[in-house]
Write a structure and sequence with these properties.
Blueprint: E1 2-11, E2 17-23, E3 28-32, E4 52-58, E5 68-75, E6 80-85, E7 89-91, E8 100-108, E9 113-117, E10 121-123, E11 128-137, E12 142-150, E13 160-169, E14 172-181, E15 199-206, H1 209-212, E16 226-230, E17 235-242, H2 245-267
Parallel strand pairs: 1-5, 4-6, 5-8, 6-9, 7-10, 8-11, 9-12, 10-12, 11-13
Antiparallel strand pairs: 1-2, 3-4, 12-15, 13-14, 15-17, 16-17
Amino acid sequence: MRAFSHLAVAQAQDARSRITRLHSEPPLVLRPTIAMGPQPMTHWFPHGTPPVQVSLVAGAAGPIGGDELRLSIDVGAGAALELRSVAATLVLPGPHHRPSRIEVTIRVAKDGILVWLPKPVIAARNCDHQTITQVMLEPGARLLLREELLLGRHGELPGAVRQRLRVCIDNRPLYDQELAVGPGAVGWDGPAVTGGRQAVGSVLVVDPDFAYHRVDLSTIPAGPDNAILHLGGPAVVVTALARDSLTLHRQLDTGIDAVETALRSTCS
């Protein structure tokens, strides 16, 4: 299966954000929705200017081996978008032993905001999947991007998964991270990668305020399975390992809350 979905958001004359393009092809189905769950980084959205709420709904099973899927997201200058997914994504092997692939391209213009909170990706046994996400930010843009990967369903080993996330600001690289797990990835379950954990995730927060304020992150709880780091630019990344999805979700939630609290106290 081949599919291309495109979402574009722009700021209207009343300063509110509006959807200007919404094109979906299964299994990547985009639907406008109301707020789902607590909203992080609420200080990014002044009173009266809420973000556009859109959810990614699975219109068919997938990705399945052989699928080639593309998703394009454009956030205009001054616009704000909160994108979520309704359910976890189960990556499955196909009948012809071909790999599956998802390419995600994100552009956020000056002073635009994107909060992307997808549900976990589950790498089923024997899958062969690659996800490539490229994010292009203009100066002044803000981004919260969350990733969660579960290595197999309950009691099974994962298939082969490779994830790459590359983020640039004004065409200059800010963050370029690649993770490979499963068959063919040497040492993926060793102490340098997952340490035998079943779930791995991260949260990247890009905020221009990081360029002007050294946010104190020393009070954030740290442990052998989680870390929080300043990047060489206006960004912070939270990474976590866990034995199950629920624990991973809680760790990342704690990291987001801590970063938001630190930003508010430093910049107020």
